[in-house]
Structure formats: C-alpha cells, structure tokens
Amino acid sequence: MTSTTHTNRLRNETSPYLLQHAHNPVDWYPWGEEALERAKREDKPILVSIGYSACHWCHVMEHESFEDENVARVMNELFVCIKVDREERPDLDKIYQTSHQILAERPGGWPLNMFLTPDDQMPFFGGTYFPKTPKYGMPGFPDLLRHVAEVYSTKRDAIREQNDSLRNIFSRLQPQGPAPGLRLGPELLEQARNELHRQFDARFGGFGSAPKFPHPT
After folding, report:
1. Would you say 45 and 148 are in contact if contact means Cβ atoms under 8 Å apart?
2. I want to staple 29 with a disulfide (CB 3.0 to 4.6 A). Which of 35, 43, 109, 152 is the partner?
C-alpha cells in the first residue's frame, strides 16, 4: 500500500492512473507547462513515465521503484519527473512509443520510461520496465538514472545529433493528407472488421498472441 505521508502534484488530477501515484515520494508532475518550464529553467533532463491503471508491469515498477524513498531521491535530484496516463494522452504515448521503437530498434510497451532533453522534449534514451536491482539482463533503475544523467551532462553534442536524426525520421513518417474529395467508404471498414475477426481469439478472448491487446492500426 502506498504511504500517504507523501503527496505530489498528481493529487489534483482526475485520471485514476495518475491518482495512483499521487502519494509516491517521487516529485511527479502531470504533463504541462509547469514541469516543462522548470526543466528548461534548471537545465534538467525530463523523465516521462507513461502507463495506465490496468497495466501489470506499471504496478510492479511503482511498487519496486516509485514507492521507494531512495530511488525517488535519485529521480528527484537528477530529473524533472512527469507521469502520463496513456488513456488520457494517446498523442504523447504514440510519439514516445514510436521514438522508443526507433531508438531501441524493438517494440515498446508499458510502462514506457523516456528521457527527454528539456528545451524541446526530444527523447534521447528510454525503455519499458526497469527493475530496481539488476536482473533480466538489465541494470538496476538507480544506476541507470545516474548513467543517463551523466550522459546528458557530458555528451550534449552527440545527443543533439541524435535528436536531429530522430526529427528527420519523424518528418518522413508524417502521413500524406487525403486527396481532395476522398471519403471513407464501406469497403475499408469491412476490411478492418475482417482483420479484427481474423485476429480475435474466440476461445480465450483478446486479439492475436500475448499480450493480446487490440492494435488500433
């Protein structure tokens, strides 16, 4: 159970997911001008952590790291920390999931933890679930936080070059606008329905193989 001895800025939010983190010792901000301006003013990288209330590994990482006083102290010292509900801000989730896929060259998931430059909110590193202590072939989260902060402090030029490359990739990913007069017809909707029908698991529920989430595309 999360202690109520701590209260952060998420206490005033309406999202169930954000309210779950309102008593973490992490100095969480919701996404907004207050957090972004502070990051610019203090020249601190941003840690944006995206999840949703029914996400198993989101809860695991909260209990392991975000409720831990020592881990929170490192997070608060080195980063401006922002919590995002993917169900409330699917636009941000799409941007940073795509960024993770490009930077890590593998699919993302939740929780998604991305580290951003403060002046333009461009991601320069990220991942999904990070354990508190080293396991599963991954470093412990506190060690990772210190390493990312050191990279931000000592390798600004390399980060800028990577950010420029990421911007170029995003510009090529922008879809073309529809041709004038083009309308969404019943054939396309029928094609989408058939594809969902093909993927649906009528015996156990869900779509496709694990984790069986429906894919909007």
Report:
1. yes
2. 35
